[in-house]
TrEMBL record:
The protein's name: ABC transporter ATPase
Pfam families xrefs: ABC_tran, DrrA1-3_C
Organism whose genome encodes this protein: Lacticaseibacillus saniviri JCM 17471 = DSM 24301
Family stated for the protein in its record: Belongs to the ABC transporter superfamily.
Domain ABC transporter: 4-232
High-level lineage: Bacteria, Bacillati, Bacillota, Bacilli, Lactobacillales
Keywords per UniProt: ATP-binding, Nucleotide-binding, Transport
Length: 299
């Protein structure tokens, strides 16, 4: 079952077309990594899904129901974490969640148990500390607690790690991965390593068009290029080796692309090098990353 269906959506801002015939689906239970450069149209897509802007052409369905600008009943089953959450800084975390729960008409008795559950889930203390003293990472955690408060069927996170330090990013991604059994997640970002760590499906958006939409494993199988990376003591040796084995040189490193068996290719490369008295100081098998695939797809 698909939680989200985006069908042939177009969106203009003045003379600029931001989305071009955009179509994709997100199945129930997936962590969908929605990636693209800054300005590719990711945030615009998120706003359209939430009914926060008008669609010029096409349709969007959430849980089988159409999304309409300004009157989207399906938002009651959607949690949203923007890239920069805003808070009432004089509140405590529990007070803020209680306020959000009342806005969504949650029962007071339910909030009494749900708020401590959410704070525990995201690793925030249930105390009297005001939000004004929270770090950026703590605010992101509170944003997740708010987004999950009313048990949404879909969680949308728009660039949630863009302003976090490495430790904060790692903590947030661990938390996001732990939510997989509770809800479907759309994770919009331009940080490809984050998507590779937690997503099981990936959509690559480029110039407003979806270039790829599949499981991460299928995308790697289709686009990935296997490589051997050799390091030499000098650039002169690397240059000579690159010419000999038809590799790409970068300073003292040479990269060789292969499509057959790794062992056979590595043995052939080493035989050629040693026959010409070229001995690499290191040789590594390079597994293609999502960043490598992304650059290939948008080239």
């Amino acid at each position: 079952m698909n939680v989200l269906e985006v069908n042939h959506v177009n969106k203009h801002f003045g003379d600029k077309q931001v989305l071009h015939d955009l179509s994709f689906t997100v199945p129930e239970g997936a962590i969908f990594g929605f990636v693209g450069e800054n300005g590719a149209g990711k945030t615009t897509t998120m706003k359209l899904i939430l009914g926060l802007d008008t669609i010029d052409a096409g349709t969007i369905n959430l849980f089988g129901q159409p999304v309409h600008y300004g009157e989207t009943a399906t938002n009651q089953a959607v949690g949203y974490l923007p890239d920069v959450p805003e808070y009432y800084n004089y509140m405590t975390a529990a007070e803020y969640l209680r306020f959000c729960g009342r806005l969504t008409a949650m029962a007071p008795d339910e909030l009494k148990t749900r708020i401590p559950e959410m704070l525990s889930l995201v690793g925030l203390p249930n105390n009297k500390h005001r939000i004004r003293g929270f770090s950026r990472g703590m605010k992101q955690r509170l944003g997740i607690a708010q987004a999950l408060l009313n048990r949404p069927k879909l969680l949308i996170c728009d660039e949630p790690t863009s302003a976090l330090d490495p430790a904060g990013r790692s903590e947030f991604l661990t938390l996001l991965a732990s939510l997989k059994t509770q809800t479907t997640i759309i994770f919009s970002t331009h940080i490809l390593a984050d998507v590779e760590r937690v997503a099981d499906r990936v959509g690559i958006l480029h110039h407003g068009q979806l270039q790829v939409n599949d499981t991460l494993a299928a995308i790697k199988a289709q686009y990935a290029v296997n490589q051997i990376v050799l390091s030499f003591e000098t650039e002169a040796q690397a240059k000579q080796a690159a010419t000999l084995i038809q590799g790409k040189q970068n300073a003292q490193r040479v990269v060789v692309t292969y499509h057959d068996d790794y062992t056979e290719t590595a043995n052939a490369v080493l035989s050629q090098l040693l026959a010409n008295q070229l001995v690499p100081v290191a040789m590594d098998r390079s597994e293609p990353s999502l960043e490598d695939i992304f650059l290939e797809v948008i080239a």
